[in-house]
Model the fold of this input.
Amino acid sequence: MNRAYLSIGSNIGDRYQYLQEAVRSLSAVPSITVIKLSKVYETDPVGYTDQAAFLNIAVELGTSLSPHDLLAVCQNIEQELGRKRIIRWGPRTVDLDILLYNDENIESDDLVIPHPRMEERAFVVIPLASISSDAALLQKAAEFDPEKEGIRLWTAFDGDDVFVHTEN
Ligand code: GSY
Done:
């Protein structure tokens, strides 16, 4: 079984519901097992900053899919959940990025793994480090000041984080 890590973000509409739908859609793929989910973080936009705050999570998956087949699944889910690329780096209903796939280094036209800018992005590193035991990643996350980076733990309206956290 291959191990992959994704970052999922949303900053349009019911952001939390988009995250939930994305995770449900991943779980519904027979060759994917959702192993761990981070808590939900609300994060100030990076890149194109004149847009709403995001909700971001990191997800650990087990999968028998190849990296490119996993990419196709992620792109399908984005399409199904209504993502339209109107402005590059702009608002999106949901965005699924493959961050890591085993220890592989992949550089193709449509897929680069590890994700090229992941280490600079607190909204990726902080959720990811929270579900990882990788020492370098934990160190990287500790170097970020969440307040300065505009990263806040977020909980659903009832105060409960309704994602199921599977520890193994
Ligand atoms: O690369 C993912 C989309 N994205 C995000 C995001 O998910 N979170 C934050 N905080 N800023 C972002 N800018 C872009 S583009």
Q: What stands out?
A: Strands lie at 2-10, 32-37, 40-43, 54-63, 95-101, 106-107, 112-113, 151-154. The helical segments are 15-27, 67-80, 122-130, 135-143, 146-149. The pocket of 7-(2-hydroxyethyl)-8-mercaptoguanine is lined by residues 9, 43-47, 54, 56, 89, 95, 97, 123 (CB under 6 Å). The longest strand covers residues 54-63.
